[in-house]
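Session log. Operator J.P. requested a structure for one protein chain; no other inputs attached. Running the standard single-chain path with token output.
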Amino acid sequence: MAKDSTTHSPPPNTLSTDSPVSDFLSTHFLGPRSRRQFSFYLFGAACVGLSIFSTRRALVRRYIDTVPHFYQQSNAPPREVVNLRREAAEALKIATINVLSFATMLTAGTLWAFDVSGTDELRERIRRMKKQREVKGGTNVDQDKAVEREFEDFLRPSLKEGRRQEGQKTENLKDPQ
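Structure written below.
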């Protein structure tokens, strides 16, 4: 058997370093900017996890406090008196931690999804959007005024009826006969 003089090259790699797909992945999803933004999201997710852990721990501790001891008489009141101020302060603390950690995760995820890395960049994007809106057709002041006029026209009959009834009530109060 004679060997084939032509060598077969391996199939080309679909994610070579020269392909546009790899450039997109390396610059957008795997780049340092995206990793930094995503790390803020992961920080928020870690805070949510810790807040859930602390909430669960507080609930378990509260439950254990309500369970009577093995050697406690069944007709005896609980030994520990509940401090309502402490309970309220702990509930407020836990709720605040839960809300702030979820807000951190939500904000960081939103900023990562919209590829915004700071307040300066966010301000610049908002300014650009305002300029684009002005270039496209100006502000919507004319549309707003037209909608207001249409709404006033819609409510005018009922407003007149209400004023007429109000006038009759005041006349009845003036002339009690």
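Operator note: The two ends are 128 Å apart (CA to CA).
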